[in-house]
Amino acid sequence: MLLVVMTLLLILGGGYILQDERKDRFEERNLAYLLDEVGTLVWLLQDADPEERSRILERFSRTGDRIGIADRPRLGRNRPWRHAVEHIIHHRLRSALGIEDRESLRVRVQIDAHRAPGPEVSANPTAAHEEGGEREEIRTDDVEAIVICVRLRDGAWLNYRTTRIDEPPPWAGKTLQLLGLLLIAVVGSSLLIARKASRSMADLAEAAHRFGRGEDPPRLSEQGPREVRETIRAFNLMQERLHKHLQDRSRLLAAVSHDLRTPITTLRLRAEYIEDAEMRERTLATLEEMEAILSATLSFARDEASDERARSTDLAALVQSLVDDHADLGGDVVYRGPDRLIACCRPVSLRRALSNLIDNAVKYGGGVRVDLREESDGRVIRIDDAGPGIPEEELERVLDPFYRLESSRSRETGGTGLGLSVARTIVHAHGGTLTLSNRPEGGLSVSIRLPE
User: Fold this and answer.
1) Are residues 432 and 329 part of one domain?
2) CB of 134 closer than 8 Å to CB of 85
3) Which residue range or ranges hold the Histidine kinase domain (predicted)?
4) Which of these three, 162, 186, 217, is where a domain ends?
């Protein structure tokens, strides 16, 4: 946009400069025509008899001109120039006509009363010339009329007054057409170049947004300016390394699972031969706990590396079905929200995350209320319970894997400390956020915000 604006200003500025230069050249032509006409008229009248002078004056007179011969000049003696044009006319006519007496040529410029007078010029033509008076810009915007008085050889005075101060003609149609075509071509090409340069960045932003939601965008083609190509290359490399890291970790955990399940099974068989019943039960319980932790760990890793594709889902129906399932099992759960709300998500993994959260709320809080609403920047799911809540200093730590509050989540309850971690991992894979807070009236509030 900045490139287009600067190009437009450049063309408009060039047009203004061209118009200003065009006006200067036109005013120079006007002045040259005036000097040529007065000079020619003086040379013709110098040696002509009265009858010939009348014919010459009649021939030269035109609308806007008042030309006559009299015994006295219409103008008084020369005084300091009020306008640069006065000095220019006086100096050039004296040179062209060979007039030595400065008072034999008098020039006055009549200025429009509504406009400010031009700059004063020295009365001494030599000094004015040295100061650059003749090089003053010829501006006739404020000139209403020009009066010139020239003394002829016989002492008579030629009094010449003209109001034909022409303005430059309007812009030629072809010039305007060429400027218009140039403007369209430059602006169009600027937009094309800017669009081409920004398209790669837009694709990169979209890919980063999708990758942040846990999707697997295809490798971006490296095109555009050098800096953009390097940025895209770095993004592609980062994406490949992350995929390789997740795959390596999944294979490592699968191998660990395979290697650990065998000794656990062996220990279980050996525990059956323990004669002390109490010791046998405690050993079997410990082995069951180890197996549960192992299963939860593998499930947690699978959720982080899940390749489920996002699709349009009725989020309201998904949440309502979870609420109904927990209510059917005897939980005190109610739903509040719209009957239909379409969102793009991975429904299987999101269902598991919400199920973990609602299950925790029912188990440790009771009186659960699930709210679903749509906001300008996404969808919000809020799960409130009426339990004891969580100490403020523990709100962040309970989201860490395997961290449990022993006072309320002992191993006898079957918890492994991964429920909240799994839920947060799934929400982050959707590009959303999961936050915990204690309600002022008591209980815990879990807020999930999913982007558009």
Assistant:
1) yes
2) no
3) 255-452
4) 162
In-domain check, residue 168: no
Q: What are phi and psi of 446, to 5 degrees?
A: -110, 120
In a domain, 379, yes or no: yes
Query: Are 163 and 63 within 8 A, CB to CB?
Result: no
Percent helix, strand and coil across the chain, each rounded to 5? 55, 15, 30
340-371 pLDDT, tens digit each: 999 888 888 888 889 989 988 888 887 899 99
pLDDT in tens, 386-439: 888 888 888 888 887 766 665 443 444 445 667 788 888 888 888 888 999 998
- The reply to whether 184 falls in a domain is no
Q: Are residues 292 and 318 in the same domain?
A: no
| DSSP-assigned letter for residue 153 | T
Q: Say whether both 299 and 328 belong to one domain.
A: no
| Contact status, residue 333 vs residue 327, Cβ threshold 8 Å | yes
Same-domain pairing of 79 and 220: no
Question: Global pTM?
Answer: 0.48
* Paired sense of beta strands 433-438 and 105-111, if any: unpaired
Residue 257 has pLDDT above 50, yes or no: yes
The single-letter code of the amino acid at 143 is V
- If you ran DSSP here, which 8-state letter would residue 195 be given? H
Question: Could you give the dihedral angle defined by the CA atoms of residues 325, 326, 328 and 333, in that order, rounded to the nearest 10 degrees?
Answer: -120
Decide if 84 contacts 142 (C-beta within 8 A): no
**295 shares a domain with 313:** no
Provide the residue range defining the domain that includes 238: 208-307
How many other CB atoms are there within 10 angstroms of residue 159's CB atom?
19
